[in-house]
Structure prediction request, 743 residues.
Amino acid sequence: MLPTAAHRKALFQPARDLVRRVHCPSCWHGFAPQESLFIAEDPRLLGDPVSGPTEPIRFLPSRFDLTGAAIDPDGARCTRLACARCRQEFPRALIEVPATIASVVGSPGAGKSHLLASAIWSMRRQGAMLGLEVSDAEPRMHARIHAMENALFGSQPEAVPQRLAKTETAGGDGYSEVRVGGRTETVPTPFIFAVRHDSARAEERLLVLYDNAGEHFLPGADEATRPVTRHLGRSEFAIFVLDPTQDDAFRSGLGLSAAAAGASRQDVVLQEMASRVRQHRGRRTDEPCDLPLVVALAKADLWAQALGISLEREPYLPAGGVDRQALADVHRTLVRFCERTAPEFLATVRAAFPRCLFVPCSALGRGAGSSRVEPQWAAAPFVAAWEWRQGGHLEDFVP
Amino acid sequence: MRAELIHTSLPRGLDGGTGFSVAGRTGGMPRGLAEALSALSGLPEAWPDAREDQRVLHATRCIEWQGESRWVASVIRPSGVDHTGRGNRLAHHRLIDAQEIVRACPVAILQDSARWMQAWSGTPREMESPSEIGAMPGAVGATHWKRAFGDEGVAVAALEAAMQSGVGAWIVVPSEVDRLTLLAELAATLPLPQRWTRGWATRALRPSAGSMPVICVIGAREPALETLGDPAWVIRADSLRPAPRATSAKIGVEAEIAETRASGRLTWQPERRLGVGVVHAPDAAPSMGSMASAPSESVPDHAVPIAVTLEEAPASRSWRVLWLAAVLGAVILLGWFLLKGRGA
Ligand SMILES: Nc1nc2c(ncn2[C@@H]2O[C@H](COP(=O)(O)OP(=O)(O)OP(=O)(O)O)[C@@H](O)[C@H]2O)c(=O)[nH]1
Ligand SMILES: [Mg+2]
Ligand SMILES: [Zn+2]
Prediction:
């Protein structure tokens, strides 16, 4: 038999464009796409000196087949890619599509994990309304976020409220340990989504998110051997999850009793965040941070009514896309509330992040007291920040 | 040094901070050591309807601190709800010193429930040195293995497979059985000194590069199993054939096997067949030939096209050989006919 049509076609396949530079979503090391390592598929090629003894070997290939897949030393076809430094696997899309890294920051118990799970769940379902299509870049690597979404939205046999566990600070499936330069480092497992505007010729872009433990953002927790929040040095936007119910000043402004012991100083966490942003971008300590910040005021089901904010209508236009007016209105209400109750906090935010937007959200929404979870405005901080970043649809938006 | 550390979620920890933090530690423990122990405190997610006792992680692990290896025994258990109303866990770590290693079985230490804190109460504080661990020879026989799998020899077979894997192993057993007892009987199959050549655990732990292999006896419903294929280091206990000599020899004194292991003759080595001229520096990716990787800084400013066919697949190479042979054959035939035609 002569070479098949498929073979002939493959030989003339047009070259695929790659991005100029990849930033590893686990260690944020920058490298050229052709420096990516491939992950061996042959089960005998086990034991990588960096990613661990139970991981397949990572290698820089010299042999490829006609489709561009690498051939491992045992002749198996390999398509999975890994970072040149920490050797953690990343989706192939990362070398083909530009990526936006985003930071979700907040003190322990602020509501980051619930918000993340609810926001992703809402974005997957409400694409048309949001004007965005959101999907997993590589479903195989998303077991953790799927488990979080299932825990909140999966069908439950009993009528018990399903809630997420507190995020671990190390160990478990949220982190990996790698050996780089003779030193063991803990790196976080990212969540990577493909986002596409629903206009016909819209280009795809990846969104990289992390579910950190709040403890990682406390002063003193940024260590070289546990660089789990160093995405702050690379992110294009940040979401600061503020829990007004953890703060006595906000609580009194909302007419609630004093907070229980153990609430962390959220203004300190915000300052620490700003200092890490500057430090990891090589900025001066008095320089403002140039990335947009969305302050997501969480658990709004508990307090929105007291401020006359209605969460019934989500902030999107009937034809799809973000409703600027709705965002601007609610931003003004929340800023006025902060001016009244916690002016120092507002001053800290504005000094560090001149581009800031206040958005209310509720991960549990209407379902807060029950076993059902019906998020309200959960995706809004993410969609607003996504559109407000450089190159987004709301880039020129001044709230 | 005998020392211990308790790590759990608190309104305020001993070293400040809120949430997961140090609740108690032996007075005088260096901060770096406390951080290294705190980093071992994670409790992996279990299957959704797991009972509290099924979620407990019992483990002995070897950590490196200031250039030295230290053994740490840990019991990490769910412990009610914390001040934020969310499920909490209590991690209790105990450093094991050199004298204790000589006389105690690692899994027997984990089984000694009086030694392990069930719940934390009171304010964060520095604690006294823990009491010394005396002689603890460990389990005798493998009755739980016999009950679970019908034959004590399954324990020997499982241990043998686990020891042969240089990377540790996950031995998968039904989720309902008492894994700590199975682990104790498994460890007791080895002479005492050899038990300290591996870590032991009752939940799925992935060893990191350069760390001591850990033998984990895990439940079949562990979520960590779901995303794995079927690697050689995952051993399904119910598919093992009992080791032949198990029923005759007394399992607790399988000295010969143990001796072989101790001498390293059975140590599993990852197979690396990377071809000729391969340099395999510890941190460098094995490169298999000539594809030059430009240093990151010299990447051109335009998009880089993907290299589609640097070398064809072996299959297409054999086609090419066939092709060449056929063409060559045709040319020879043609030449022969021509010569013959001219001659005629
Ligand atoms: N009423 C209400 N409670 C919420 C909401 N979101 C989260 N919570 C509660 O707030 C607590 C903390 O939520 P998490 O999402 O675990 O907080 P976190 O920021 O991830 O905390 P760490 O993992 O400790 O950093 C939980 O008890 C949740 O039930 C919400 O929208 N409404
Ligand atoms: Mg969390
Ligand atoms: Zn990396």
Observations:
- Residues 313-343 of chain B form one domain.
- The CA atoms of residues 245 and 330 of chain B lie 66 Å apart.
- DSSP finds ten helices and ten strands in chain B.
- Confidence is low (pLDDT under 50) at residues 246-284, 287-316 of chain B.
